[in-house]
# Entry
Amino acid sequence: MRIEEHPVIDFTRRRGKKVTIYFEGKPIEAYEGEPIAEALHAAGIRVMNYAPKTGRARGLFCAIGKCSSCLMKVNGIPNVRTCITLVEDGMKVERQRGLEPLPRDYRPPKWKEAKRVEADIIIIGGGPAGLMAGAKAAEHGAKVALMDENPILGGQLVKQTHKFFGKREQFAGVRGIKIAEILEKDAREKGVDIYLETSAIGIFQDGDRKLVAAVRKNKELIEFVGKAVIVATGAMEKMIPFENNDLPGVYGAGAIQTLMNTYGIKPGKRVLIVGAGNVGVILAYQLIQAGVDVIAVVEAMPKVGAYFVHAAKIRRLGVPIYTRHTILRAEGKEKVERAVIAEIDDRWQPIPGTEKTYDVDIIALAVGLRPSIELLHQAGAQIVYVRELSGYVVRHDDRLETTVRGIFVAGDSSGIEEATTAMLEGKLAGLAAALFVGAADLRAIDEMKKVRQDIEEFRSGPFGERIRIGEEKVMIR
Amino acid sequence: MNDEYLSRGYLTVEELRKLTPMPSEERLKKKPVAVPECPQEIPCTPCAEICPVNAISMPTPNDRPMVDYDKCIGCSLCVQICPGLAFFMIHYRGEVARITLPHELLPVPKRGDEVILLNRKGENVGTGKVVLVIPREKSVGDTPVVTVEVPVELAWEVRAIRVKEAGE
# Structure
C-alpha cells in the first residue's frame, strides 16, 4: 500500500524509476532509491526471516539498520540489513532461515584492497548533529569526510513532518524534513565529502591519527583517516517485554515513520501506539496525516510525557490516550492481528478485568530511545550509565571531547534529547574539532561560547531539568 | 497550576481560563483575537518572534506566551507559525463566532464548505461553514489555516474540523 496523497509530502515527486525485484522467485514492483524491506512491506510482505533457535517469524523493527531484525538473503548473500539496502533491478531476495553460510564461491574483500580517504576530521553519522558538525568544521577551514549507513542524509529529521520548537534562528517553526534539506545543502556547499550507505565498523589509533574502518554498500572496505573523529551515531529504539513482542507488525515508532514519511508506504490499516511521549503522540498525528487509523495511545505513566500541545493535536482529532495502561500481548499468526491492553495499578501490575482487545495490524512501540555508543565503547571511551540521558553514554568535556583524545561526540549518541540540541551540539563539536586539528582560528572560540549559551538557554526550562542533571553526571571538568 | 490535563491530553475551558487571561467580551466582538492554548513552559518562541505588533510577551524562550489582547490585530501569523498548533483566533459576530484554526490534514476544505466541528477531545459538536482558507503555500508557517463560522455558544469548544466524506 502506497501513499498517493499527503498533506505535507509529495511522494510522487520523490519516487525513482520503477524496478522489479524477485521475492522467493515472485516479481515485486519497487522504486529505485527505496530499500528492500520497505519495498517488500509495500507489497504486503512482512516476514523477513525466521529466528535461528526458535524458528519464529521476524519482521522489521527499527528500519534504520540498527537492530538486525530484517536480515535476509540478497542475491545469495545472507545477513543483509534489508531496511537500509537499496533495491536494484533484478535483485533476488529470500527469507533467511536461521543462520545461513556465505556461498562457497563468495570472495570477501581483503583488507589490503581498502580504499583510503584522508581528511582532517572524520564524522560518523549524517543526522542533525553530524551534518551540522561537518558544515561548521568545513566553514572553519577543516577538510571533512562524513559517512552514514543510510541511503539518505538527515538522520531522523527526514521523517519528521512536524514543525520544530526552539527559536527561529534554530529552525523553529520549520518542518524536520525541510531542516534535513537545508543542512544537507549547507554541508555539501561547504565541501563536506559525503559517503552514504557506508557503515563504520571500528575506530583505531593509526600513529598520531585516527583510522575509521568502514564498509560501503555491504561490500567495499574503506579506511577513513583523520586527526579527529566526531561520533554522531544517534540512537536506537528501546523494546519492552510482552507476549509476542517479536511478531512482524510490532514496529519501533521510527520504523513506521521511515515507511510512511520517507518512502510513502502505508505501514498498516489500524495502529495501537504504546507510549505517550513526544515520539508516540507525534507518530499518532503523522499516521492520521497519512490516512491510517490510530485506535489509541496507551501510556503506563499517570500523565502524558509529551509536550502537551502535541498530545492535544491528536486528542482533538479523536484519538484516545489511556494513561496508566499497558500492553499485555500481541496476538496473531506470523503477523499482528490483535493487541490486548489493560489498566495497571500503583505497583504497575495489570488490573484483572480491565483487559481490552483491539483488532489492529500494527503495534507501534514508542517507549524511548537509547544512545548508540557502540563505536565509542570500542574506541575505548569511558562509559557511564546515566538514567537521565536514557542509557549508557560517554563522559565528555565542555567541548564534547571524550576521554579518548581527538574523539568527539554530539547529538543523541551523547544522550537522548532533541534534534534542536543535536544541531547545537553538532556545531559545538564541529568547532571544537576544527580547533583541535589546527584548522580554525580564535573566532571559533567566540562562536563556541554563543553555542553553549544557546544550549543552556534551550535546556533552562522544566523540560530541560532531566538533561541538566544527566549532563552533570557525564561532564569532565 | 494543577496539571491534571496531562492525564487526559486536553484542557477544559475552565483550566484554560485559569491558565491565561481571556479577552473581554467587547474585545472578542471587535475583531479576531489570538488565544494560545500553551500551558507548559517549553523552549519555543516563533509566535513571539513573528508577531508584527509585539503583542506576545515571552521574557525567556521557556516562558509561556502571554497575549496583550488590545495590541493583537488578529492577523493569524501566530496561528500559522505555531509548531505546536496551539494558537487559535476567535471573533464574536452576533449569533455566530468565527474560529481560526490550523488544519494540516487532507482534504483542505474550500470556502463555503460545511464541515464537522470537533471539540478538544475530538467529539462531534455540530457543523459550521468555512469562511476563509489560507492555503499552505500562503501560510508563513507552512500550515493551512481555516476560519470556520460556528454558533457563538461553541466559540470556546470548537478546536478542530473534519471535512465531510462523500454522502455524509
In short: Residues 5-163 of chain B form one domain.
